[in-house]
């Protein structure tokens, strides 16, 4: 599986993402500077975490206008899978590739901790390494992860099976106590309509090695390699 | 001329920062403070001299960058 990671000024999880992709695929991903619009065809494009442009104006707003994102959008429209994690998720909503918006955490604090996620839809290139309803432990690290969309959009996402991950407790309950940031309906990650674009706030790339404290993010990358290689 | 853009969260969108400010005002002893909503003000110097054209240009800026219309409303005032 050939992959590319888009690097912005202020990205900081591109290395973690590269380690996870290399571990799963055996290949080093390309690193694409945000100013580059022409780069080789790849099987997967990743928009990594960090604080592109210092979160100026809104998290992801400036990154979404980067030249490289124009290419990402064109390729996503052609069906090339795109994964956005954390700041990458924020950028994908700002480009319009995914619906909704990520707002300041309801508790106003930066949150860095392990959370539990329920895999809501395992039928995608991103989630085929999991079972429907499986609960996994992965970390979050963000200030603006509070997913918002209007009720009509949320209902449409649910009806079309576009909710990928939800924040839950260890037993799989999607309750208020398990919601770290105030996200509507405990939503942690969503697909586009064709399930070829996934955005999520948690960091599966930081749960791929026992030294991370857990390896339950690895199945996402292993599943991608099986689906795309 | 100059455009002054007010960007505010849409009604019904939770504003935790506004809530925290309201709480802090209460802590300081200010009474009778209701809901507090926080937004941002963006001032833009423009070469344009026609107010209508200026407003149209700034409206396009708001839709493309200055506001995220999923969660925010904007209001434009043209001065000078």
How much helix is in the residues of chain B? 25-40%
Major sheet details of chain A: 9 strands, mixed
The unreliable regions of chain A are: none
The level 1 CATH classification of chain A is Alpha Beta
Structural class by SSE content of chain B: alpha+beta
Number of helices of chain A: 5
Radius of gyration of chain A: 16 Å
**CATH homologous group name of chain B:** Phosphoribosylformylglycinamidine synthase subunit PurS
What is the typical, i.e. mean, pLDDT of chain A? Answer: 97
- Record the strand order, biggest sheet of chain B: 2-1-3
Span from first to last CA of chain A? 4 Å
How do the SSEs of chain A run, as a string of H and E? EHEEHEHEEEEHEEEH
Low-pLDDT segments of chain B: none
Predict the CATH topology of chain A. Answer: Rossmann fold
* Relative helix content of chain A: 10-25%
Helix and strand arrangement:
The complex is a heterodimer of chains A (229) and B (80).
Chain A: E1 3-7, H1 14-25, E2 30-33, E3 44-47, H2 67-77, E4 82-85, H3 87-95, E5 101-103, E6 111-119, E7 135-142, E8 146-148, H4 151-159, E9 163-168, E10 187-191, E11 197-200, H5 218-228
Helix pairs in contact in A: 1-5
Chain B: E1 2-9, H1 16-27, E2 39-45, H2 51-66, E3 72-79
Antiparallel strand pairs in B: 1-2, 1-3
Attribute tags:
heterodimer, A: 229 residues, alpha/beta, Rossmann fold, 9-stranded mixed sheet, two-stranded antiparallel ribbon, 23% helix, globular, B: 80 residues, alpha+beta, Mth169, Chain: A, 3-stranded antiparallel sheet
At a glance:
The complex is a heterodimer of chains A (229) and B (80). Chain A has 229 residues and is an alpha/beta fold. Chain A contains five helices and eleven strands.
């Amino acid at each position: 599986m050939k992959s590319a990671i888009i690097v912005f000024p202020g990205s900081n999880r591109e290395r973690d993402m590269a380690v996870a992709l290399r571990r799963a695929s055996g290949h080093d991903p390309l690193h694409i500077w945000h100013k580059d619009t022409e780069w080789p065809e790849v099987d997967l494009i990743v928009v990594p975490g960090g604080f592109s442009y210092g979160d100026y104006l809104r998290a992801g707003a400036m990154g979404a206008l980067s030249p490289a994102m124009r290419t990402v959008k064109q390729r996503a429209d052609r069906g090339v899978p795109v994964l956005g994690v954390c700041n990458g998720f924020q950028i994908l909503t700002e480009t319009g590739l995914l619906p909704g918006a990520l707002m300041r955490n309801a508790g106003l604090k930066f949150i860095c901790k392990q959370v539990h996620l329920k895999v809501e839809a395992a039928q995608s290139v991103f989630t085929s390494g999991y079972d429907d309803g499986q609960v996994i432990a992965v970390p979050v690290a963000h200030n603006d992860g509070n997913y918002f969309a209007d009720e009509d959009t949320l209902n449409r996402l649910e009806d079309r099976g576009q909710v990928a991950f939800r924040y839950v407790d260890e037993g799989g309950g999607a309750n208020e106590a398990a919601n770290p940031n105030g996200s509507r309906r405990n939503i942690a990650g969503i697909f586009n309509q064709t399930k070829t674009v996934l955005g999520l706030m948690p960091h599966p790339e930081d749960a791929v090695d026992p030294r991370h404290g857990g390896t339950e993010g690895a199945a996402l990358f292993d599943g991608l390699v099986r689906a795309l290689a | 001329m100059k455009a002054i853009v007010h960007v505010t969260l849409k009604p019904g969108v939770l504003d935790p920062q506004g809530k925290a400010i309201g709480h802090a005002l209460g802590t300081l002893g200010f009474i009778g403070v209701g809901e507090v909503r926080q937004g941002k003000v963006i001032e833009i110097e423009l070469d344009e001299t026609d107010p209508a054209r200026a407003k149209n240009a700034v409206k396009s800026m708001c839709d493309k960058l200055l506001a995220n219309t999923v969660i925010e409303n904007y209001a434009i005032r043209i001065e000078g």
